[in-house]
Design goal:
The complex is a heterodimer of chains A (120) and B (107). Chain A is mainly β. Chain A contains no helices and 11 strands. Chain B is mostly beta strands and 107 residues long. In chain B, β4 and β5 form a beta hairpin. The radius of gyration of chain B is 13 Å and the shape is globular. Classes of the chains: A mainly beta (120), B mainly beta (107).
Chain lengths: 120, 107
């Protein structure tokens, strides 16, 4: 079964750091384009980043310079390293995958999400 | 950045009705366009990709149309499980902006 599971969310103080994990099963993360999307409580969806299968990553302006995506192929896992966190980063964070056979930006597989709460 | 304008922001309908949600891009995005359904406390679920292709396992009462700048999601014969929030998304160019969402409620 194709599946993504996020973990690592929690309560962090403003200015702090947190690393989210997105573990895949049933497919190989490094062959897929992967995105992170977040959703503040009660609000809409916001795209955060796109990591191409080749490894390059693009970021939303709102997180550029503060968030970094990495991949550990041996663990088939994508990470989102978040630093200099702000209260407005409070959100559910989702990862999603586009299979290599798709060309239209088709993000079929989503994780269940993990909540990041930035508060003092 | 490409802007996505989704309308309406909310919609009331009855079981069995047909509803239409629209999304307009600020520039042409060809067919790099998705529709998602989201229920409270759940992750978004892909319904339509490439503007008009039905994701596997999604009921055929859902359909998408459009290309370029104007896109439509139609849900025919609404079922109780269809009451949710719907989002459009462009994947033509980053940032992959989402529409503001349409909350579909039971009348």
């Amino acid at each position: 079964e194709v599946q993504l599971v996020e973990s690592g969310g929690g309560l962090v103080q403003p200015g702090g750091s947190l690393r989210l994990s997105c573990a895949a099963s049933g497919f190989i993360v490094s062959t897929n384009n992967m995105i992170w999307v977040r959703q503040a409580p009660g609000q809409g969806l916001e795209w955060v980043s796109l990591t191409y299968s080749g490894g390059d990553t693009e970021y939303a302006d709102s997180v550029k310079g503060r968030f970094t995506v990495s991949r550990l192929n041996s663990e088939n896992t994508l990470f989102l390293q978040m630093s200099s966190l702000r209260p407005e980063d409070t959100a559910f964070y989702y990862c999603a995958a586009e299979p290599p056979e798709d060309v239209w930006g088709t993000y079929r597989t989503w994780g269940q999400g993990t909540l990041v709460l930035v508060s003092s | 950045d490409i802007q996505m304008t989704q309308s309406p922001s909310s919609l009331s309908a009855s079981v069995g009705d047909t509803v239409t949600i629209t999304c307009r891009a600020s520039q042409s995005i060809s067919s790099y366009f998705n529709w998602f359904q989201q229920k409270p406390g759940k992750a978004p679920k892909l319904l339509i990709y490439a503007a008009s292709s039905l994701q596997s396992g999604v009921p055929s009462r859902f359909s998408g149309s459009g290309s370029g700048t104007d896109f439509t999601l139609t849900i025919r014969s609404l079922q109780p499980e269809d009451f949710a929030t719907y989002y459009c998304q462009q994947t033509y160019k980053t940032p992959y902006v989402f529409g503001q969402g349409t909350k579909l409620e039971i009348k």
